[in-house]
Write a structure and sequence with these properties.
Layout lengths: L1 H21 L2 E4 L11 E4 L9 E2 L1 H5 L9 E4 L7 E6 L2 E5 L13 E3 L2 E5 L8 E5 L8 E4 L3 E4 L7 E9 L8 E6 L6 E2 L2 E6 L14 E4 L27 H11 L8 H6 L14 H9 L1 H4 L6 E7 L4 E6 L5 E5 L14 E3 L1
Parallel strand pairs: 1-2, 3-4
Antiparallel strand pairs: 4-5, 5-6, 7-8, 8-11, 9-10, 9-12, 12-13, 14-15, 15-16, 16-20, 17-18, 18-19
Length: about 350
Amino acid sequence: MKKKIILFYLIGILMFMTIQNFAQIGINSNNGPADPSAGLDVRFTNKGFLMPRMTMQELSAIANPANGLMVICTDCGTIGAMCVFLSGNWVNVTLCNPPAPQAGTQDPTGTQIIWNWNAAPNATGYKWNTTNDYNTAVDMGIKTSKIDTGLIAGSTYTRYVWAYNNCGVSSATTLNQALLYPGMSYQGGIFFYLYKPGDSGYVAGELHGLVAAPFDQSNSAGWGCDASFLGGTSTAIGKGLANTTLIVNGCSYTENPHAAQVCASLVLNGYSDWYLPSKEELNQLFLQKGAVGGFHDKEYWSSSEYDAKNAWSVFMYNGEWDITNKMRIPYMTINNTRAIRAF
């Protein structure tokens, strides 16, 4: 028994001397020594180093943290952060990866789409792909657009783009675009206008626009609110639905429905959210009248009021604007009505 105690004592002394001599620890899969410059060298090709994880409240409760102490704060910022205690303060280690680029306004024409995205801060380049796979993506360098050809009109396409720099890669930005063309059947009507920046209803990276009913809804309806000023209507793109709701709620009729009521009551191809176009929406409809089809060489109502007696209308044969009497008087004010809807 005495011999065993002496043996353990000698082994303990030897281990202590070994640690004192080397003062390094190597933890790895091949039992290799630590790098000469490191006190602790952890080397694996299939494992990581897991630091202590805690909330900000728990981090703040650490008594007398040593300079250089490192932890993972799980609720710091929006995604958590690695924190280092330096010179009396906890410091968040900021990643230098670039943020994901923001989707721009896509440009669909014919059988191609020009994909656009906005420059990302600190990015030195971008990659683009038809699938969500960075490794096989096309390196675009510093370009922020990509021409995508050979596409099929009427189809919707999804693409992906990443920003990168010397630190790393951003998350993927998803780009969506339908390859629409004026005159194609879409969302219950005939497509004629895609929202642009500045239009009410425009959302970057999303597909929104206008379709028209394929035929007129009336050739005799008045505008409503005869000789009384309704007020509150707009001429802008994206405002026709609000105009129509305002007219329907504010202008009564006794015999024949007015133009806004005709449109609001329409149920066509499974959709019931049709409305009388605003002045600028009606202008876009005129510009694509050949593609949409079914128009007559007459005046068409807009939902934009001019004054107590008149509202805006357009001559569909030449695009000239007219300030037309709102009252329905046979053989005097006989305008046509064409409903549209937004998607």
